[in-house]
Amino acid sequence: MLGQHGRGITRALFTGPARVLARLGVTPNMLTVAGTVATIAVAVLTLPQGRFILGPVLLLLVLIGDSFDGILARLTGTESSFGAFLDSTMDRLADGAVFGSLAVWAALHLNPGALRTVTVAIAVTVVVLAAAVPYARARAESVGATATVGIAERTDRLIAAGVGTVAVGLGAPTWVLTAALAVIAVASLITVVQRIMAVREQLWRPGTLEADS
After folding, report:
1. Of 189 and 208, the one with more pLDDT
2. Of 12, 90, 137, 161, whose CB count within 10 A is highest?
3. What is the pLDDT of residues 60-82, one digit of tens each?
4. CATH number of 107's domain
5. In angstroms, how far is the first alpha carbon of the chain from the final one?
6. Which residues are known to be catalytic?
């Protein structure tokens, strides 16, 4: 939901800087790959060590920068199917690094017990669901349907994780991050279900639905 509203804001803020990048010869695909490498590096080098202020701040800056590739593509007329494919694929790698790093942090730093077990399990679940949400959309498009509905887009998931992480970094109990991850997991699962139902409504005809592995 936040992602849908944020796109208009990012276009207004970053169109000017994107024009500068275009004049410098920077391509959208360069930005996409660079943003992914930066996200993975920041996540792996900060979150597992419990650097819960520095990490989210740097990730926020990278996330803001990630908005430039689409704007730059539109400005330069270089939007392409490959660019969209590359962007989506790189986002999955970046998301996996962020939530996987939080799972590593929980495994390494929380005291043995129920909270550590639950936090690790939820973080791993979020890794899976964060990939399932865009997969549902992509798979829908491959069969001629659309699945853009849902309460938890990528921006929503990252902001919720960032809020929980920063809160713990500022001294909140560790269960606050566990709760934030749980909210992300539930919202992501709801989004997957919403997309499945949307596609079913578009494609369903009596006797035409078949299982496809």
Report:
1. 189
2. 161
3. 988 877 777 778 888 788 888 89
4. 1.20.120.1760
5. 30
6. 91
